[in-house]
Amino acid sequence: MKVAIIGFGVVGRGLAKVLYSKEKCLKERFGEFKVVAVCDRSGAVVDEDGLNLKEVIEVKEKTGKLINHDKGRELSPLDVIREIDFDVTVEVTPSNLETGEPAKTHILESFKNKKHVVTANKGPLALYFKELVENAKKHEVYFRYEATVGGAMPIINLAKENLAGNEILAIRGILNGTTNYILTKMEKEKVDFETALKEAQELGYAEANPSQDVDGLDTAAKIVILANSIMGLNKSIKDVRIKGIRKITPEALFLANKRGYTIKLIGEIRENRLVVEPMLIPLESPLNVKGTLNVAMFETDLAKEVVVVGRGAGAEETASAILSDLIWIKKRL
Amino acid sequence: MKVAIIGFGVVGRGLAKVLYSKEKCLKERFGEFKVVAVCDRSGAVVDEDGLNLKEVIEVKEKTGKLINHDKGRELSPLDVIREIDFDVTVEVTPSNLETGEPAKTHILESFKNKKHVVTANKGPLALYFKELVENAKKHEVYFRYEATVGGAMPIINLAKENLAGNEILAIRGILNGTTNYILTKMEKEKVDFETALKEAQELGYAEANPSQDVDGLDTAAKIVILANSIMGLNKSIKDVRIKGIRKITPEALFLANKRGYTIKLIGEIRENRLVVEPMLIPLESPLNVKGTLNVAMFETDLAKEVVVVGRGAGAEETASAILSDLIWIKKRL
Fold this sequence. Notes:
Structural class of chain A: alpha/beta
CATH class of the largest domain in chain A: Alpha Beta
Number of strands of chain A: 12
Order of helices and strands of chain A: EHHEEHHEHEHEHEHHHHEHEEEEH
Strand content of chain A: 15-25%
Largest interface: A-B, 46 and 46 residues
Shape of chain A: globular
Oligomer: homodimer
Distance between the termini of chain A: 8 Å
Largest sheet of chain A: 6 strands, mixed
Helix content of chain A: 40-55%
């Protein structure tokens, strides 16, 4: 199976490293995953016989650029999608929650060119879910996006496949590791929000501009994706009631603890309503996971409650989810 | 898709009730699941146009028997497998961890007659895993057994599909709800093992003869199935070091709590070794789930730790797992 990776930041390089370092074992178990193109804003490298990924990664990490030795002219991502022969586009450019671009265009152009798509990109899915899914169907290609929610934590495919036959009545969970880290820190060390945030930034768990995480937009985008993909709704970010964690104090956490609760930033879908807000969670609840962990609880008619816990971010962790989608497609080609 | 249910106890009837009560919704989403035969030790009912499941369940629950109005002669399960036209055998006779029978024969005879098999029966899988899997492959039929471990909790298919591409380095978990109920009760109410066991029996969580649960054999059978199916080992129950929970005292639980731990009966597969024994688990670990819940933690190379929590038993819960396997097969026929 021939793959093109569009976007070569932490996630794209993480996937490339995994495909390179596990090449032999993956080939034995599932067949070959041949990366024939890698591109980002800095350029594109293409080799229809399969790129030397080790070299591509090294050059990118040394020079900051993708340099193509073979082609006479510069190829844009859209050129790659239109002109190069491959089976699956892996779309992992940075998420944009306002426009969904450039990922949306890359994805639609891939469908049009009969390429299956695997993505880790929340933006286009949170904004244009229905359009994208219908477009994939129209062009008879697969569209998989496990990595958009919960990183390595199985969630979308788990609900749609392992819980197939169940009606999913509600989903609630911690879908953002940064806020969980901050709240865990505030609870354990009785420090205030600003102090915990600063440490999260120093450790690389929070961005310099932490708003998308701490104000709840990141979680909102994820529950929109879950609502649409798992529960068959047709929601967008503007349908989510969002409240972040900036006003949570160590005193509030202390008082909650005294009554047998903790406070977590929870994303919830229930009775057609989407909410992101700090909620009281019983200390003994499976939702009370610590540090940067993510967790999701499904309420279903047959299986009742099913909970899954995992790492919501990280290069290898996200690669794990992308790879499971690539393998799923590989088995069907 | 035509289905025969072999075994009509709690699990078989639970599946029949689900197929009957969700008939319309399942048909819309996945197509038809037509049950053409149901049999157990008391007899067999057959209708190649599809049984009236509501009636079959009612008669069985009223008379204790399966009564066939259509056929002149009594059909045994093997007669049904050999003579009736259907696609999938659902084997849900009682588990026998010493011989694996009669399930093993039902499963092998199904393969021979080109029937796919879905089972909730631990016995044959814990004793003859390799033989069964190879036999299914030889006859080119599907063999699915999600319901054998962890009830409604997704575990086998989760590891093989959602975590495909990962190397599973270790698995540990609470795979028996009865022992978890007893230990939770002892911990919370400071009662001894016998008292907690008695209450579990009164509530129907433990059998009159509780040995398979409390002495660890049930958990051992399940980790054998996980070791073979997920980690590609070739183990049998005799390869498991087994220790039960009879010697755990409320004092031991109290002391563990004081140090930040609890005690759980854990099944573990690590470095080719299979162990079932009471282990100290940090109070904050995702493995510290309460009551009758089951939990499993996978340690993997890419996703790192992934934890899943769910209900390990119950008629509808087991039906959920069987149904996910039936749907999986339906999609491939």
